[in-house]
Specification:
- The chain has 3 helices and 5 strands.
- The protein is α+β, with helices and mostly antiparallel strands and 131 residues long.
- The protein has 2 domains: 62 residues, Nucleic acid-binding proteins (OB fold (Dihydrolipoamide Acetyltransferase, E2P), Beta Barrel); 51 residues.
- Strand 4 and strand 5 form a beta hairpin.
- Helix 2 crosses helix 3.
- The model has no long low-confidence stretch (mean pLDDT 83).
Length: 131
């Protein structure tokens, strides 16, 4: 099956185009999307079948290879982490930020060993908050 990325997709109109890795762009209609998927975001990696349509090649049976960012807001919310899990993430982040803040108060930049896990936790929390 060919793979590629979403070039653009208009959920209101129900169609868009996929950029194939090994050929020309392919037209895609909403009927080809997986069940429950209402839209695709540009850059999302997909796999799909191809059929010859009236105006050229058309994607069939699209499968999302990289689900993050391609789901609807409702689908994303259904995949959120449990609040009990988030408590641990937030508490760990607060402890790490307190340590980094203390270093800044003493005129020091954070140690890379502390900065890396802090950045990772900040990204995870930001991703979760955006859902």
């Amino acid at each position: 099956m060919p793979t590629g990325k979403v070039k653009w997709y208009d959920a209101e109109k129900g169609f868009g185009f996929l950029s194939r890795e090994d050929g020309p762009d392919v037209y895609v209609r909403d009927e080809a999307l997986p069940e429950g998927v209402k839209t695709l975001k540009p850059g999302t990696r997909v796999e799909f079948g191809i059929a010859q349509g009236r105006r050229g090649e058309q994607a069939l049976q699209v499968r999302v290879l990289e689900s993050r960012g391609s789901l609807s807001r409702e689908q994303s919310r259904a995949q959120r982490k449990a609040p009990e899990t988030m408590v641990g993430i937030v508490e760990d982040l607060i402890r790490l930020l307190d340590g980094i803040g203390e270093g800044y108060r003493h005129g020091r930049h954070p140690d890379p060993k502390a900065a890396k896990p802090t950045a990772k936790l900040l990204r995870a929390l930001a991703d979760e908050l955006e859902l």
